[in-house]
Write a structure and sequence with these properties.
Layout lengths: L2 H24 L9 E5 L20 H5 L5 E2 L2 E11 L6 E2 L1 H6 L5 E9 L4 E9 L3 H12 L6 E2 L15 E7 L2 E9 L9 H8 L3 H11 L1
Parallel strand pairs: 1-8
Antiparallel strand pairs: 2-3, 3-5, 4-7, 5-6, 6-9, 8-9
């Protein structure tokens, strides 16, 4: 290959590398964080799906979110927008969670709003290599303030009040699920119990995978 061609290839590669570095450096490293976080590592209940090798099927929108709006005690959380990506770091901010997401194959998440518009939330699922890596991501997300957390999901309002919000972060085998709800605008005193319970029901897909793995 002529030397000028080698030079052109080298320059193109260098520019691509610089572009990736610029993207990582300029991606915002701050964002909202919940006022309260409950974090839980995986357990023996999810041993049948403790590794992606044993549970390789990719997640789908229908599997995680189904067709019906999640509800609890008369509170319905209506789905707003679903996003799926192989770049798990785009759903996160902060160096801790971003680093802990290494090896993540897929993130599936959706934004939700209560029927009256007073509560907004998101439900996110990260497909990690195994239970140990899922636990590391849970630990990083569970550190909360200053350490990084999820970015607002597409479709969540800018008036989402993270300062009065709460989240549950759980490792379930090789999956990490995040259930995050909060008031919208100045509704800081709103009861978040049933909106969060409604979204928690979306975790049924994990139980179905466990049953499939043991059946």
């Amino acid at each position: 290959m002529p030397s000028r061609t080698w030079i052109a290839v080298a320059v193109a590669g260098a520019l691509a590398g610089v572009g990736a570095i610029v993207f990582l450096v300029t991606r915002p490293q701050t964002g909202p964080a919940p006022a309260r976080i409950r974090a839980e590592r995986t357990s023996a209940l999810y041993a049948p799906i403790a590794s992606r090798r044993d549970d390789p099927r990719p997640l789908s929108e229908r599997e995680v979110f189904g067709s019906a709006a999640p509800a609890s005690s008369g509170v319905t959380m209506e789905r707003r927008q679903v996003s799926m990506s192989a770049d798990c770091s785009e759903a996160l901010w902060g160096s801790g969670p971003t680093a802990a997401a290494a090896g993540c194959a897929q993130v599936v998440r959706a934004s939700f709003a209560s029927a009256d518009g007073g509560v907004s939330g998101q439900y996110a699922v990260f497909d990690m290599p195994d239970g140990a890596s899922a636990d590391r991501l849970v630990d990083a997300l569970g550190s909360g303030h200053g350490g990084g957390f999820l970015r607002l999901a597409p479709g969540q309002p800018g008036s989402f009040d993270a300062g009065h919000s709460r989240a549950e972060v759980r490792a379930l085998g090789h999956f990490v699920v995040v259930n995050w709800v909060g008031p919208v605008g100045d509704e800081g005193s709103v009861d978040l119990t049933f909106p969060q319970v409604a979204l928690e029901g979306l975790g049924r897909f994990v139980q179905q995978r466990v049953l499939s793995a043991t059946g």
